[in-house]
């Protein structure tokens, strides 16, 4: 993957000094690979996904969010559940999406032009992605190792994976990838970002965000609320 | 279709412009009806904690905006192309409901530099008659800043605008914008607190370049405030959920807080919610509109509402649509340049550059909609354009409006899009980045215009508005120039890395938000052959029809449009009171 910057020495120095300065306020908790003991109970079962689709999505979010020092693996962060719930709900059924004809193929900058709801588009793409995997690896995506899955997703994202006319790159970049990002960073009430793990990773304090005094007090300083973010559930 | 009893003034759309027109009419006891297609947000989950702080629902999924499933717009870049509908509305975000887009706005409230109202004259005087390209139909607005100044002043008081004057009755004021038009009065409220990123910007441009940074004028209330109508604002909590949200602290100057609750207490004012206007009834022989046809969305009943005067105060695109479907005024024809309805459709040429500040805690979540620190050195015609090859410019500055984590995370160029290194880059940089942005002007181009799409319809079976628009050469050059100034400042600020550096370019890309400031289509002017409405906003072909909003702007500048919209709407309210007393052509 293209990544020229992460080991710049200057940045590493900064991170060390930032950790000292902040008492590691915004740095990730160590050993986050297991969900915290007080994490909300994970929902069981999927509303939209078939078993094959669930296997594909679970494998995909685990490739995109591997277990490491920053977060548990994607499935344990609730990412697959988030995507399932979004596709099963109003968004997946086409809320706020203009679905009247005539339908005309467009250029990328025209945006989405297909006569499918996001849920329908997702399912068609899941089949196309697995078909592409079968052609290349003789296995479905869920059966690939992470070392195989990651470059496969990269090839899909870059438009290098032929899918017999299906717009696989558009499917990944404009449907799947935004859902993945939303699953990570939306309020945990939607099923992803379980235990606010991604907010902790960032140092995003969440709610209540009543900062009339904090605005001046913490201007240019580490924000203490970033250690223990609060979400909608904490105020419900 | 039921015919209702006539009202003195009928206003289409219940947003900011409509509320201001109605406020002036109510002050003078004129009977007024506002028709709004949406409902109220005042007591819903939109404005209560914890549901207010839901980025996915209100921001990413556009919970407060116009529902594109029912009504969107089609777009193409040239009139030789077949248009496509914007099946999701992303590039700009019209509102719906009482208060309109004025509820989910960020609150930047500028007075434009005074020469904007006489822009063609200004450029011709300064650079010669040949300086304006033939395909750029700039024109003077037919109104001067001096006429609008008292209305700007009133709008700022009604909305409790926070800021620092730069030019008080001709005397430049330290800390304000020295390029602003002369003001009679200081802003009614002190500026918002500055952000850490704003401090870095402010110190850098003062020290390194001698520029004059100023706090973004804001409809975010730094303190509790009571306006001249006795309506109150709370104090801003810098929550980072402002633009695209309803303020739970009532600290944002919005029509649903400041205008409509007051209006509904006035005896001769009526607001009808859930009323979708279908069209105008035009009587060509008498040169008048009889009234408006609307559908009551709660009963399914269609009504004709007669009006002594009718005001179009809907979103930019809708004002044009109602004139075109009503057959009022000659549609603009780009092939000949003749006709007026739909012409001078403009947008803005905005750009932003991500800045990374190792070791500095920028805390992007400590922010309001308008916590911005700006300069106007490169805006509009504040600098010499000789030899530059373009006209216009933009403000440049650091607007920190939110740290909402789905949308506002910047990682250095080259960061992978997922995986451990992606997560690590997010963790490393989230609190330490900001963006420097330019809000570039957009001048009219002969080939940028609105008309009715021949193929696509809305949920009511009516044609969608079609925008034929692209960023033409002038706007691409404006953006390249302003983006280069931003980059230069960014380097001086000590950001590392800086980037990517990308200016606004063609083709217009519908997938990305580029600001909701679409203007034109029903423009004002002194020449009936080149404008839809007179300098008094009175339709040239229908004496009792008036149009207000950014749709009357002949061009878009490098400032947000709400200040001039507010001033024009208040002035129209006073003009309408005169018109109702003595109908006729207003001069």
Descriptive report:
- With 236 residues, chain A is mainly α.
- Chain A folds into two domains: 42-202, no CATH class; 203-236, no CATH class.
- Chain A is built from eight helices and no strands.
- Chain A has helices at 9-22, 51-64, 79-88, 118-137, 146-157, 168-185, 197-202, 214-217.
- With 587 residues, chain B is an alpha/beta fold.
- Chain B has one domain: FAD/NAD(P)-binding domain (3-Layer(bba) Sandwich), CATH 3.50.50.60.
- Chain B has helices spanning 16-27, 55-60, 119-127, 145-159, 196-209, 255-258, 260-263, 316-325, 420-429, 473-492, 562-581; strands at residues 2-3, 7-12, 32-35, 73-76, 84-85, 167-168, 171-172, 214-215, 225-226, 232-233, 269-272, 275-283, 288-296, 302-312, 349-356, 372-375, 394-399, 433-440, 449-457, 463-468, 545-547.
- In chain B, strands 1, 2, 3, 11, 12, 13, 14 and 21 form an eight-stranded mixed beta sheet that branches.
- In chain B, strand 13 and strand 14 form a beta hairpin.
- The longest helix of chain B is centred in the C-terminal third of the chain and has 20 residues, at 473-492.
- Chain B is globular and about 70 Å long.
- The two termini of chain B are 36 Å apart.
- Chains A and B meet through helix 1, helix 5, helix 6, helix 7 and helix 8 of A and helix 2, strand 5, helix 9 and strand 19 of B.
Which key terms come to mind for this protein?
heterodimer; A: 236 residues; mainly alpha; 42% helix; globular; B: 587 residues; alpha/beta; FAD/NAD(P)-binding domain; eight-stranded mixed β-sheet; five-stranded antiparallel β-sheet; 21% helix; 18% strand
